[in-house]
């Protein structure tokens, strides 16, 4: 164990390291793309002498990404982006491997924020962010911690929205690669990853059948598409609510019912929010919900359904099962909230499947290298993942599956580039 990492880290229990190591080894065996990048990083040492701070959901797959970045020569510090998704045994294993960790499961809000700040106090050269938490702290509270910062990579839609808002104001101070917007991220991670992991968390937590129930999916972006598709596959009757007319038409043509939230609230039995916005379920919706309605959130923050509105209608709140709170209303109905309204797939599950995060975290790793190699030319702003890096990740994934594809002939390339037949 690194004495430096052990002395600096703040974790719940270092004796859990053996259990965490088994989790990391399991995902490593199912992440062939990241394994190949690790071999490349070990040879090239792209981050030699640099400090990298990471803020992500701190579970086994994230831990392996941290080890890959470390293999590239970096001094790595990591913290959790959600208080309920941190796994204490994984944290302990990372400390044992020489990574400084500031994270523990379910700290109070003040400590949670302090742990994030501690992860930035190394004054990193590069960052990996989730939901813009690091970026927000650096720009609003601790600009002094940016003095060495070359740039970084952002994981989520929510974070990119924040970064673009900062850039629009002219206040974003460094380049950030929008990993979320890469094809391999939003096509696979958001759709297939969220689609499966949200239902993994919901089913594991409730131990209830989905087949035959009416499921309301709130939002039909890439995550909403995945959640709706998996709900349909599980046998649910699926309703989609939207504010975007184009996405609403798409949901309709994909075979789902589409209606306003106030109408869907009357018939829904399970609700899954995936909008990235706040209070998309609120008091007027609670007022018409069925007794026993279940609310789960797969958006980034715990604001998608209004807990203040729900509390106003409530006479008693009690925990009826791990990660399930019953809100018993004054009129006798009960509404159940999973994982305190936080990400149900991580706060009440293990997050996306390892094979999905293999591609996403491969993009994080190569995106971070891209920023480090080009930060002087890039300047402050939100940067798209170059297509050639995105495609390279996909090709490596295909190779790991033993799948080959065709290539264009020179004649076909000429034809596609010409206006004349």
Tell me about this structure.
- This protein has 421 residues and is of the alpha/beta class.
- The protein has 18 helices and 15 strands.
- It has an 8-stranded mixed β-sheet, sandwiched between helices.
- Helix 16 packs antiparallel against helix 17.
- The N and C termini lie far apart (65 Å).
- The model has no long low-confidence stretch (mean pLDDT 96).
Compute the gyration radius: what is it?
22 Å
Please tally the β strands and state the result.
15
Task: Tell me the number of helical segments per DSSP (H or I, 4 or more residues long).
Answer: 18
Give helix % range: 40-55%
- Give the amount of beta strand, in percent: 15-25%
Instruction: List unreliable stretches of 5+ residues.
Output: none
Whole-Å distance between the termini? 65 Å
Shape summary? globular
Mean pLDDT over all positions: 96
The side-by-side strand order for the widest beta sheet comes to: 9-8-7-10-11-14-13-12
Protein structure class: alpha/beta
Characterize the largest beta sheet: strand count, sense, and whether it forms a barrel.
8 strands, mixed
Can you give keywords for this protein?
17% strand, 421 residues, 18 helices, globular, alpha/beta, single chain, 7-stranded parallel sheet, 8-stranded mixed sheet
């Amino acid at each position: 164990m690194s004495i430096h990492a052990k002395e600096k880290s703040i974790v719940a229990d270092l004796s859990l390291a053996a259990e965490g190591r088994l989790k990391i080894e399991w995902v490593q065996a199912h992440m062939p793309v990241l394994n190949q990048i690790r071999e490349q990083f070990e040879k090239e040492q792209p981050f030699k002498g640099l400090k990298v701070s990471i803020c992500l959901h701190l579970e086994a797959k994230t831990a392996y990404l941290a080890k890959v970045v470390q293999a590239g020569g970096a001094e790595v510090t990591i913290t959790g982006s959600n208080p309920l998704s941190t796994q204490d045994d994984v944290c302990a294993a990372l400390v044992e491997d020489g990574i400084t960790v500031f994270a523990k499961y379910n700290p109070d809000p003040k400590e949670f924020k302090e742990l994030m700040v501690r992860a930035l106090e190394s004054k990193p050269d590069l960052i990996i962010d989730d939901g813009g938490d690091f970026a927000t702290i650096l720009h609003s509270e601790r600009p002094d911690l940016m003095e060495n910062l070359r740039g970084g990579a952002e994981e989520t839609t929510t974070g990119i929205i924040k970064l673009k808002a900062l850039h629009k104001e002219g206040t974003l101070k460094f380049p950030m690669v929008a990993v979320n917007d890469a094809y391999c991220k939003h096509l696979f991670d958001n759709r297939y990853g969220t689609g499966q992991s949200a239902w993994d968390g919901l089913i594991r937590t409730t131990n209830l059948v989905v087949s035959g129930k009416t499921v309301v999916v709130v939002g039909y972006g890439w995550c909403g598409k995945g959640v709706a598709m998996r709900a349909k596959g599980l046998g649910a009757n699926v309703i989609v609510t939207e504010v975007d007319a184009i996405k609403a038409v798409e949901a309709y043509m994909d075979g789902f019912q589409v209606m306003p939230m106030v109408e869907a609230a009357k018939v829904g039995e399970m609700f899954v929010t995936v909008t990235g916005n706040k209070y998309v379920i609120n008091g007027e919706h609670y007022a018409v919900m069925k007794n026993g309605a279940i609310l789960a959130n797969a958006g980034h923050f715990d604001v998608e359904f209004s807990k203040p509105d729900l509390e106003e209608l409530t006479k008693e709140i009690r925990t009826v099962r791990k990660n399930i709170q019953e809100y018993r209303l004054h009129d006798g109905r009960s509404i159940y909230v999973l994982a305190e309204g936080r990400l149900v797939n991580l706060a009440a599950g293990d997050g996306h499947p390892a094979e999905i995060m293999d591609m996403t975290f491969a993009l994080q790793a190569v995106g971070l290298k891209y920023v480090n190699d080009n930060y002087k030319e890039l300047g402050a702003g939100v940067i798209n993942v170059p297509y050639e890096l995105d495609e390279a990740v996909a090709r490596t994934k295909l190779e790991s599956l033993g799948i080959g594809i065709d290539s264009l002939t020179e004649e076909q390339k000429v034809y596609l580039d010409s206006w004349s037949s």
